[in-house]
Structures are given as structure tokens and as C-alpha cells.
Specification:
By secondary structure, the protein is an alpha+beta fold. It has 21 helices and 38 strands. Strands 4, 5, 6, 7, 12, 20, 21 and 30 form an eight-stranded mixed beta sheet that branches. It has a five-stranded antiparallel beta sheet with strand order 14-13-29-28-27, with helices on both faces. Strands 3-10-11 form a three-stranded antiparallel beta sheet.
């Protein structure tokens, strides 16, 4: 190219020279000839430049470079505005998970890094040992790693996990210490992070969020627990802004323009109470130490609303110990509240007795002999001796049998009810179905198999699998005079962008048993705690640690609570059940006050290594329930967020996964009801595009091959009509009022087109 330009420029001169030699022109004539040649050359070059200039203006590209974009970059910048992740609060507004910054330490070893005076800003080789001692003492970083990194050929190095996730306070401490020891070359980079101020605080329930790379930028994303389940609610949408800059690249004030507004994540207020949760964590720490158990879990519930007030498990983790969590023996990432199902044992007898009382299939004063053979299986009670006799009387009433937790008594009741009737009550209590409180990875549990022995054993909590969350849902019916509530984990969702909120209310999901049946079960549970002969939670020795004399072991404010204890066999990985002397899941459900419960507490202890006593559970339940009762009035008041009531826009859910849809709707504080067991939604009771208030019930019809009648208790007439239209059945109404009280077609039974449904309405 250069040679060509040289030839082009000197071409007129060479031409003139040749012509001059040939023609012997005079000097003056040669000058004129050269002038003409230069004139035409200038015209040609000017034409080329004009054409090129017009071409650049028209096309606006040089090669693959956009000239407009390149020009703008010189005086204008576009930046991404990071959205703030929503904060997770307890019910009172105490922050349990908030955005924060952590820091990563680095070392500069590039010898070209000096200040304006030539002073080194890098770590000199003579100081490597000093820096090694410093980082090892301050952060516990392995000396070999420090030595390896400092001697690398990189210009800047970091020091692994222990050199990352450093708190602001620790970073400042290290900076000051390095300054005092005259160490240069160490620096810190800031990283977005998530802070959990309370530390050990319902960790598997709340979960954790970590930084993830998304589209070239880092964003916090939920990994476990509530953080993961509500990730779409908590995550915001990044915005974009432009600003003009001076020749030094500095923003010019007043030139910033918003291209895409940032949308911050919504804040989630859980139903947890920070004070009760911290109390429970302390009691659980002591219980874990005292029992030496493999795993423990405990949950406190508001019996009037179904709200989870406190929940905890052991082993657990905190944000600072999470990297070493799996080193704990028997540790699980699963939330024992909702993600792990188990055979519950005798606490399940509450549901058997509720169904028997409701259906009139038990006479509590009738006696029975404590001997039972079912096919090839002998059913025994816990107090059986080596010679097959019992330490307590062999002939007892069914009421006494409940108090002493008799497997034989419950088996006889189940046989009197029949498998179909007992199965119908399992369906009414919704066992085998997820609660769908909005949590991630919920375990549905399992109903007993059709095997006759298994059906009978399910009456005392073996051969059936449940989660604590499912048990709690069922126990709200026992505590609430037959009215069953959906357990809630969120009290409010607040949108800071619109200053609106969605506030949760108690949600009725059925009425499996009558008021009398529920009240009768609570009376029986009271005898478990107060009967000096048969009561399994009546202690003849008391508990000096709690200053309890001989008598009821579960005492709150000097009053005995309603209790049902449990000792469940644990399935062995090799088949059958484990056979060790304490290879059991010990548990208790406690309701207080016994007559009209305000609270339900459930705790289980898996395979303790210390000699088992029910006192371990009482030492958690009693003080926790005492605190809850003292705070009862405060618990009815939620955090004031100075927002107006928001609305939820209904989408089109047809063809979507029915379970995922229900979970998603629950996270927007709606009340989804899945009709049938199909995998896909085929119809919805509220049309796409409608805006509805929080707690609105929405029916989701699924592609179930059978039409199965749901529990319509508390439904509106409009919702009944919608179901009737889907099922092709006729409805007749009795009574007046706005809510369904009873229905003529039993819950969980198949419905045929043209069938008549009679519904009694009331308030």
C-alpha cells in the first residue's frame, strides 16, 4: 500500500522527466506540464475523499465497527443498575436475610506497581514470610497455599475459600493490622452477598442465597429453603442508565437518563417470630447435646391461623459454617419440616381416634383384651414383657388404651371402622397430598398400601409416611373443633416499587371431623398427660430440672397441656425395621390450652444415644409454650409496612403443571385448590387477566381421569357452581348463608355426570 502511494505521488514528476528527455522541452513548458498534472491529481484525490466521506456517513460502519456506537462511547456510557434483592423478615419486621457486601483479599506481586513517588505497591519477596504469618494468623489460610500463591508468576493472587466471604468488620480489622505491621500489597475486592443477622435461625427453613453469574453480571440467587422457593419474588429486574462523561471519563452531573427502570425484589415477611425462634434454637441446642440424637426437629404453630411461629432442626448450619456443614454426622440439607417423610408412630393415633369418634365406630367405655393376631402378624403394646404379658392391666377401656398408647386398641378400632372408612378419613385429613405452603421440594409422603396388615398398622402410625407439615395441617382440625387450616409460612409480601402489600389470612381447607369428635380427642390427649396409671406423659418422678413434682410432664403456666406421645419404629435400609434398643423416632404433639388451644407444638427425636426420657421434649415444649402464651396478644399484630393492599393479576394456567402452579400461586398469597390428581391444569375458576385480592381462592381443574369430590367446606356458592359446571352435576341448596357447611357427596369419592349434590349453606 505504501509503495503504491509513493508511485501515485511521484508519477507526475517521473512522467514529466521522461517527456522532457524525449521532447527537449524548455523549463517553463515543463513547469506548466507539472502544474496541470498536479491539478488533476488533486481533483482526483479530493473526489476520492468526498466519496469516502459520503460513504461513511451513509453506511456508518468501518469493517465491523459501528461509528455511531464508537463515537458515543467517547462521551456517553450505558451502565446496568443492579436490582436489590428483597429482604426476608420475621413477622414483626426484624430482618433475617438482607443484602450485604463481603470481601475477598488479594495480594499484588507485580513489581511494576508503584506509586507516583516510586514506592512499591506490591509485596516484596523479602516480606513473603511476614505476609504468610499475617494471613495465617488473621484468616487461618493454609501456609502452603499462601507460599504457592506468592511465588506464582501471576501479577495478582487470591487465597481460596478462607480468603473470601470476609465481613466488613473483619476486612477493616485486617486493613488496620496490615497498616500497623507496615505490610503493603494487600487489597480487597467487594462482592455482593447475603447476610443472616441472627446466625442460627431456622437455617434449613430460611435457606441461603449466593452470588451467581447471570448475563455477565453477578446476582444473588436462592440455593435452598425460602430463599430458593421465593427466588422469583425476592429477585428484582436490573435497570439501565446512560450518562455523558467528560474527556477524563467522569460522569457529567445532570446528564443521567433512565433507559430501563430498576425493579427491586419484593420483601417477604415470614410467619416466624424472632423471639420465639431464638428461644427454640437455644432449647434445641440443649436437647441435641442432652440426647445425643442423630436428628431432631421441632415446630410451633398458631392453632387459630395455621402460621408457623418457630421451626428448627439439628444438625443445622449458619451462613458462616455452611461450608463445613456436611462434616456433621447425620447432617441433611433437607428441611425436616417439609422435605423428609417418615413413619410418625403413635402421635398418628389422634387421627384414628378422631375418625372413629366422628363416625361413631368406638365406644370409649367399652373394654378390650390386649391380645391381637392379624394374619401372620402379632400386634403388641409397648409394655409387653418377655413372657408376653403386660406391666399394665391387660383389659382396659378404649379411652384408657388411648392414654397408654395401645397399638392393639387402635388396631381393633381400625378393624371395626374398616379399611375404606379409615382410608376416607386419611383422605379428609389430606395425607398423601402436599401442603403446598410455597416451600421448595416438598415431600408428599405416602398412604398405607392395600396390604391388610399395613392398613391396620397405619392406625398407630406405621406403614404410612408423613411430614411434620402434613401432621400440623391435620392437627389444626383437632385443635380447631374440626376446621382444618393450611399451614402458612408467609404473613405478608411487600412490593417496594408500588408500595403495595399482600397480607395472608387464615385459610380453611376442610372440615374432616365434627366439633364433638375434635373436642373428644383433645379430652383424651389431656388424659395422656394427667392419668397417673395409663398416661404416657405422666411422670411419677417429676423433673427437677423444670422444678416439676410428680404429675403431668407437660405443664404450661401451672396447667397440664393436651398431649400425644409417640415411639415409632424406623425402617432399615436392609429391609424391615431397625432393632437397636433405642432405634426409634420419639415424638410428642402438645396443644395448649387443652380446652381451646392457642398453640400446637410438635417435636421428634431420632435415635438418641443417651437413655431416653420424654423429659427431653418437655424441656423444650414447656418453656416455649409458656413464652408463646405470654406473647399471644403481640402475635396477632403483624409488622406495619405503611403500604396499601395490592392485587394479583391472574395468568393463563391451562396446560401448566398443576402442583407447580399451586406453589407459585401460594407465593403470591392466593389460595389455590387443586381439583383431582392430574398433572396438568385444564381449567381455572378465575379468568386470565383478572386482578384479585390476597387470599382469593382459585380452583384448578386437572386432567384426572376420574372426577373426585373435594372438601368444599367454607366454599362460596359461586365456587360450588363452578365445580358443578365442570363435573356436570346438579346442585340443590339448603339453609342460607355465604359458606358451605356440609355436602351430600363425601370428600374423595368419585362423582358421575348427572349426579345431584346437596349443599348446606351457613356462616
Amino acid at each position: 500500500m505504501i509503495k503504491f502511494l509513493k508511485k501515485l505521488i511521484f508519477f507526475p514528476f517521473r512522467k514529466v522527466s521522461r517527456n522532457a528527455r524525449k521532447t527537449n522541452w524548455s523549463t517553463e513548458r515543463n513547469r506548466k506540464r507539472v502544474g496541470k498534472s498536479l491539478f488533476f491529481l488533486a481533483i482526483a484525490l479530493f473526489t476520492v475523499f468526498i466519496f469516502r466521506f459520503v460513504w461513511l456517513i451513509t453506511v456508518n460502519h468501518v469493517g465491523g465497527t459501528n461509528l455511531t456506537t464508537m463515537a458515543k462511547s467517547n462521551y456517553q456510557s450505558t451502565v446496568t443498575v443492579q436490582a436489590k434483592r428483597g429482604t426476608i423478615y420475621d413477622r414483626t419486621g426484624a430482618a433475617t436475610a438482607v443484602d450485604s457486601s463481603t470481601y475477598t483479599i488479594y495480594a499484588v506481586i507485580d513489581k511494576t506497581q508503584v506509586d507516583s513517588n516510586g514506592n512499591p505497591l506490591y509485596i516484596d519477596k523479602k516480606d513473603f514470610t511476614k505476609v504468610e504469618d499475617f494471613l495465617n494468623s488473621k484468616l487461618g489460610i493454609d501456609r502452603d497455599l499462601i507460599k504457592k500463591q506468592l511465588n506464582s508468576k501471576l501479577k495478582q493472587v487470591q487465597f481460596g475459600p478462607k480468603g473470601s466471604d470476609i465481613s466488613l468488620e473483619k476486612m477493616k480489622e485486617i486493613q488496620k493490622a496490615a497498616e500497623n505491621e507496615k505490610i503493603v500489597g494487600l487489597g480487597f475486592t467487594a462482592n455482593i452477598s447475603r447476610s443472616y443477622p441472627f446466625g442460627n435461625f431456622a437455617s434449613q427453613f430460611i435457606g441461603i442465597a449466593r452470588p451467581k453469574d447471570e448475563n455477565g453480571t453477578q446476582a444473588l440467587k436462592g440455593d435452598m429453603g425460602l430463599e430458593k422457593a421465593f427466588n422469583n419474588v425476592l429477585s428484582g429486574e436490573n435497570g439501565k442508565e446512560t450518562y455523558q462523561k467528560d474527556i477524563y471519563g467522569r460522569p457529567i452531573p445532570g446528564t443521567t437518563k433512565v433507559i430501563e427502570p430498576v425493579k427491586n425484589g419484593q420483601d417477604v415477611y415470614t410467619t416466624l417470630d424472632a423471639q420465639l425462634q431464638r428461644n427454640l434454637e437455644g432449647y434445641m441446642d440443649k436437647a441435641a447435646t442432652d440426647t445425643g440424637a442423630q436428628q431432631l426437629s421441632g415446630t410451633l404453630v398458631d392453632a387459630h391461623t395455621g402460621e408457623i411461629l418457630a421451626t428448627s432442626q439439628r444438625p443445622t448450619y449458619t451462613a458462616t459454617t455452611i461450608n463445613d456443614a456436611e462434616k456433621q454426622k447425620y447432617f441433611t440439607w433437607n428441611s425436616l419440616l417439609s422435605q423428609s417423610a417418615f413413619e410418625p408412630g403413635s402421635t398418628f393415633k389422634t387421627f384414628l381416634m378422631a375418625g372413629a369418634l366422628d363416625s361413631g365406630k368406638v365406644n370409649l367405655n367399652e373394654t378390650y383384651q390386649r391380645k391381637l393376631q392379624v394374619y401372620d402378624t402379632t400386634i403388641n403394646d409397648w409394655d409387653v414383657t418377655e413372657n408376653k404379658s403386660y406391666t399394665l392391666p391387660e383389659t382396659v377401656t378404649y379411652a384408657q388404651g388411648f392414654a397408654l398408647s395401645s397399638n392393639i386398641g387402635m388396631s381393633k378400632i381400625e378393624m371395626n371402622m374398616g379399611n375404606d372408612l379409615w382410608g376416607s378419613y386419611l383422605n379428609k385429613f389430606k395425607f398423601g397430598l402436599k401442603v403446598r405452603a410455597g416451600l421448595d421440594g416438598e415431600n408428599p409422603g405416602a398412604l398405607p398400601s392395600s396390604n391388610a396388615v399395613t392398613q391396620i398398622q397405619s392406625s398407630f402410625g406405621q406403614g404410612v409416611a408423613v411430614t411434620p407439615l402434613q401432621l400440623i395441617r391435620g392437627w389444626t382440625a383437632i385443635a380447631g373443633n374440626g376446621t382444618m387450616l393450611e399451614p402458612h409460612i408467609v404473613s405478608k409480601v411487600v412490593d417496594p416499587n408500588t408500595k403495595t402489600s399482600l397480607t395472608s389470612k387464615a385459610e380453611v381447607v376442610g372440615h374432616p371431623v365434627s366439633n364433638d369428635a375434635a373436642s373428644g380427642v383433645r379430652d383424651l390427649m389431656l388424659t395422656v398427660n394427667t392419668d397417673p396409671v395409663y398416661g404416657t406423659s405422666y411422670s411419677t418422678s417429676g423433673d427437677s430440672e423444670q422444678n416439676l413434682a410428680a404429675g403431668p410432664l407437660f405443664m404450661v403456666n401451672g396447667e397440664p397441656a393436651a398431649v400425644k406421645t409417640g415411639t415409632a419404629q424406623i425402617a432399615s435400609t436392609t429391609g424391615g425395621y431397625m432393632t437397636g434398643s433405642q432405634d426409634y423416632l420419639y415424638s410428642a404433639v402438645v396443644m395448649y390450652p387443652a380446652k381451646n388451644p392457642d398453640f400446637i407444638f410438635y417435636m421428634n427425636v431420632k435415635i438418641p444415644t443417651e437413655s431416653w426420657t420424654l423429659k427431653y421434649i418437655a424441656r423444650v415444649a414447656n418453656p416455649l409454650l409458656t413464652s408463646a402464651e405470654a406473647m399471644k396478644n403481640d402475635l396477632s399484630v403483624s409488622a406495619d409496612t405503611d403500604t396499601k393492599a395490592g392485587k394479583v393479576t391472574i395468568e393463563n394456567y391451562k396446560g401448566k403443571d398443576s402442583g407447580d402452579t399451586a406453589d407459585s400461586l401460594r407465593r403470591t398469597v392466593l389460595s389455590p385448590v387443586i381439583i383431582g390428581t392430574g398433572a396438568k391444569v385444564t381449567a381455572q375458576s378465575i379468568a386470565e387477566g383478572e386482578k384479585v385480592s390476597a387470599n382469593s381462592r382459585i380452583l384448578l381443574l386437572t386432567n384426572d381421569k376420574d372426577q373426585v369430590m373435594p372438601d368444599m367446606y367454607d366454599w362460596s356458592k359461586k365456587e360450588v357452581e363452578q365445580l358443578a359446571n365442570w363435573f356436570g352435576i346438579k346442585v340443590t341448596y339448603e339453609g342460607s348463608g355465604n359458606k358451605v357447611l356440609t355436602q351430600s357427596i363425601e370428600t374423595s369419592t368419585n362423582v358421575k355426570k348427572g349426579q345431584t349434590l346437596t349443599v348446606k349453606m351457613g356462616n
